[in-house]
Amino acid sequence: MSAMLAQADQQFAQGPHERDPAWVAHLSEAELAGEGGLCWRGAGAFQRGIASQQHAMAGFGSRYPRSVQLTQTSLAEGHLGMGEIEAAISHARAAVDAAKDLTSARATTHLHAFATRLQPYRDNRHVQDFTDYLRARTRQPTTPTAV
């Protein structure tokens, strides 16, 4: 996977090519970093995933609030995967705050899925506070969605 992600970065750095599919024209460096972060996290390489997600956040700035919110949730997932509960919750709280300005159902669905993954830590005061915080600021999705 490392070689494939490196190849994607190299291809992107070379700029557009006539053989590129049309959707590639809209892909930014930040989006590529964010997608790479999801790949690393999915492979269990949480630290590399977090680094990629942080790179994405820096590139999004304030121009892409939905991408920022989803990336905050992904950072929370990465920290949770590393057992860093307080860091995970810090990012998740930021994602909750960002979600209030969005109309994206996916944003809140991801947050509630994250909260479900916190259940093994439900006795942790920070987890309890976050769960209350999430519940007070969002509506629970009505249908379960695989995330």
What does this protein structure show overall?
This is Tetratricopeptide repeat protein. It comes from Nonomuraea diastatica. The protein is 67% helix and 0% strand. It has 147 residues and is mostly helical. It has one domain (2-137): Tetratricopeptide repeat domain (Serine Threonine Protein Phosphatase 5, Tetratricopeptide repeat). α2 packs antiparallel against α3 (46-60). The longest helix has 17 residues, at 65-81. The relative contact order is 0.10.
Question: What is the topological layout?
Answer:
Blueprint: H1 2-13, H2 29-42, H3 46-60, H4 65-81, H5 85-99, H6 105-117, H7 125-137
Briefly note the CATH topology name: Serine Threonine Protein Phosphatase 5, Tetratricopeptide repeat
Number of helices: 7
Helix content: 55-70%
Q: Spell the H/E element sequence.
A: HHHHHHH
Question: How does the overall form come out from the CA principal axes?
Answer: globular
**CATH C-level name:** Mainly Alpha
Radius of gyration: 16 Å
Q: What would you call the structural class?
A: mainly alpha
Distance between the termini: 21 Å
Can I get a quick summary?
By secondary structure, the chain is an all-alpha fold.
Task: Name a few traits of the molecule.
147 residues; globular; 67% helix; Serine Threonine Protein Phosphatase 5, Tetratricopeptide repeat; mainly alpha
